[in-house]
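Schema walk-through. Below, the input block comes first and the output block second. Nothing else is stored per chain. Lengths vary across the set, and this one has 332 residues.
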Amino acid sequence: MQLLESSVNNGVSAWKREQDSLSLVSAATRLRLCPGEPSELVVQITNLSAHTLHIYLQVNGQFPGRCFTDVEGGELPASGRIEAVLRFELAANFFEERSALTPGRKNVLDYQQVLQVYARTPPVELGPDLAVGTLLAETGFSLHIRPDSRYLNYLPTVYREVDLIGRLLKLFEQAFDPSIQTLELLWAYLDPLTTPETLLPFLAYWVGWPSHIPWSLDQQRRLIRRALEIYRWRGTRRGLRLYLHLYTNLPLDTPETPESEKHISIQETFSQGFVLDSARLGETTLLGGGRPFHFIVRLRASTPQDETLIRTIIEQEKPAFCTYELYLEERH
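--- output ---
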């Protein structure tokens, strides 16, 4: 039997062993493992005998992670060849786990492993002394646990092959990584919808938003985000409706909806009165009465609203010379 390593990573030292009719040629491979990333070792197994063998693999060693072996059916015909895959998995927090941070204790980074090939079914042709579990062949290889550094991608190939450089760059990467992640997510800190709660007063100060009013957290986020738009339309029906929408979370109805049926209804009750050449007698004329610059606000909500705070909003947004009436109607 002959074992050939098909994915050699570093230096190779080969050796050969004869056992009865089996010949084993192997390469002592050095395989590099990165925590949190699965690694594979592909082995080609060739049967040099004239008999069909049923085999299984076993990996022995002190590797702290998990190892899986996969053989294509496990049946190896005479003079045939199959591929076996060895999969290694290591915990992503290998370098940060509690045991690794214990004073005076060092993690082992290099492990010697042995791959052994056993007979699953005794072939009669090889004699009665070849029982199930008989060792057919074995070979050794080493596993080297190293941190993966993205900085290696920016170096020439000749430097990537030096183990010391990769481990040294990982120290700088871990030192600068928190700052880099913060810069990549800086937009989230400047968006009122995603910023931490402790940063909201700072963003409110940026846009001149009042902080003395007891808004809820969600209301603060929505209002601060649309503050400039509210300022742009201050003193208009559109601006007042937008402010009330952001505070009460009532929907903005389509323009086709009659004003009297909207969730946030703002109706003007005054007219121009009697103006020569433009007034129509009995329609737009007004003599001896009326309330100029007056409007009515109706909020139709399914939950109770804070009338005092709503009046504060209206007083802040309406023109100083206007008067108004407020009606809170409950809609089921």
